[in-house]
Automatic annotation (TrEMBL):
The lineage of its organism: Bacteria, Bacillati, Bacillota, Clostridia, Halanaerobiales. This is V/A-type H+-transporting ATPase subunit F. InterPro entries: ATPase_V1-cplx_f_g_su, ATPase_V1_fsu_sf. It comes from Halanaerobium kushneri. The keyword Mitochondrion does not apply. Belongs to the V-ATPase F subunit family. GO terms for molecular function: proton-transporting ATPase activity, rotational mechanism.
């Protein structure tokens, strides 16, 4: 099974590519819906990472995916813009805790 990322940020996409996770950078709601539907049809993708900003554009679709028992498993990840409430290494820690990949 592969991991795939839909991001609104080129830096997030490049960082994940460094650890072998392919993905795409998208900014429009319609494109996000198209890409999610394309990924759902692929049998080799087991985990779909999506940045919070994009997940907020299509909350109903994300909820539907999370509640279904089908693959891919959907994980929302924060982007590079650090919330003052979160610690500096939050992306690394979040990915490590969520999917077990140490980067």
């Amino acid at each position: 099974m592969k991991i795939y990322c839909i991001s609104d940020n080129i830096d997030t996409n490049i960082g994940l590519r460094l650890v072998g996770i392919n993905g795409v950078v998208i900014h429009e709601k319609e494109k996000v819906i198209e890409e999610i539907n394309r990924v759902r049809k692929k049998n080799d993708i087991g985990v779909l990472l999506i940045t919070r900003k994009l997940a907020e554009l299509v909350p109903d679709l994300i909820d539907e995916l999370k509640l279904s028992a089908e693959l891919p498993l959907v994980l929302e990840i924060p982007d590079r813009h650090v919330d003052p409430e979160e610690e500096p290494e939050y992306i690394t820690k979040y990915v490590q805790e969520s999917i077990g990949i140490k980067i």
